[in-house]
Amino acid sequence: NLSMLDLAAEQRELSAELEAAIKGVLASGHFILGPEGAAFETELAAWLGVAHAVAVASGTDALHLALRAAGVGPGDEVVTTPFTFIATAEAISYCGARPVFADIDPATFNLELVSLERAVTPKTRAVIAVHLYGQCADMGAISVFCAERGLTLIEDCAQAIGADWQGRRAGAWGAFGCFSFYPTKNLGAYGDAGLITTGDARLAETLRMLRHHGSRAAYRHEMIGYNSRLDELQAAILRVKLRRLDGWNAARRAHAGQYRSLLAGSACVLPAEHGHGSHAYHQFTL
Questions:
Q1: Three-state secondary-structure class, residue 126
Q2: Model confidence pLDDT, tens digit, residues 195-245
Q3: What is the pLDDT of residues 166-199, one digit of tens each?
Q4: Cα–Cα distance between 204 and 222 in angstroms, integer?
Q5: Which 3 state secondary structure label does DSSP give 168?
Q6: Is the pTM of this model over 0.85?
Q7: Taking Cα atoms as reference points, which of 171, 244, 172, 212 lies closest to residue 180?
Q8: Residue 146 in contact with residue 116, Cβ under 8 Å?
Q9: Cα torsion at 96, 60, 43, 17 (round to 10°)?
Q10: How far is CA 210 from the centre of its chain?
């Protein structure tokens, strides 16, 4: 039997660095919206090749706040895939909008363009493309499709940090990229954590207000917002782990290659790679 993951082994490997990072936060006395969170946002934005990154409390909140910043609300429809974790559709429902499901490519498990085209109606406001198991959806075609129709493209990158489509990383294609750092993810916190990317400075400012009770200055609330802030301890932990993410993802791809070799000739249907970019192999799914 192979265990899904061993977080205790990971913690042992990083123990000294993690303890130093945590002690630094404790000594600072600054636990919410401080320098660790700001540094993590800057470092991850640079790593992903995006202009802005806004850290939030979870991957679900990342999807919800992205939809809110996009203006999605009651009466709107958002097209996505039914083959995903419930948070994708749940976030749409939080906004009072209606999830509409398009079918998937049976080889990659990601949104199929022809089915997406059929699912769009005059009520469609946005599309959420899920990069399932660590491989990007067809972002070249989907991004053009959304741009031509004036639809907001949101990427659900919860399982795909480090994946790319033709050299451009997941989270850098849509108006928003939504990440989860749940402990099981390729880049995992030691609790709940998430982040939203965007190339638009105005949208980034809206997201920062939404995560902080609709405020950009203390006790001045300009909109109805939420309490969705990444705490400094999680940010410090994620900064330590981010430095190893390239190596960890490379190891995942190497392990996937070993599985392919060992399972060659078996009755198993192995994961299909589309050949347009790197697979982050959050999961190797048969």
A1: strand
A2: 999 999 999 999 999 999 999 999 999 999 999 999 999 999 999 999 999
A3: 999 999 999 999 999 999 999 999 999 999 999 9
A4: 15
A5: strand
A6: yes
A7: 171
A8: no
A9: 160
A10: 18
